[in-house]
Specification:
Number of domains: 1
Helix content: 55-70%
Order of helices and strands: HHHH
Number of strands: 0
Distance between the termini: 21 Å
Shape: elongated
Amino acid sequence: MNLKNTDDILDAFYSFAKKEKQFKIKSLIEDEKLKDDSKRFIEKAIGKGYVEYAGDELDSIIPPTSRRQGAREKKKESVLEKIRKIVEIFVGI
């Protein structure tokens, strides 16, 4: 890759960042076994700059989890925190 000026550097950075963003989203979805609409939910959160916690959307992407001893809430909190980190890193990209 030939980086001749600022525009080339910015283009290269954003190209890399977009690929990295897709990789991180895909990894999170696979690692947490999130449901089908997860990618759209995460992309929307990145676009807004924050994760929507209220409502059913976050619940709808969490895989079936036992409700015993708060397991589902713990899973939801864990996934929420991981999505927040992705949003923080990739907002604006």
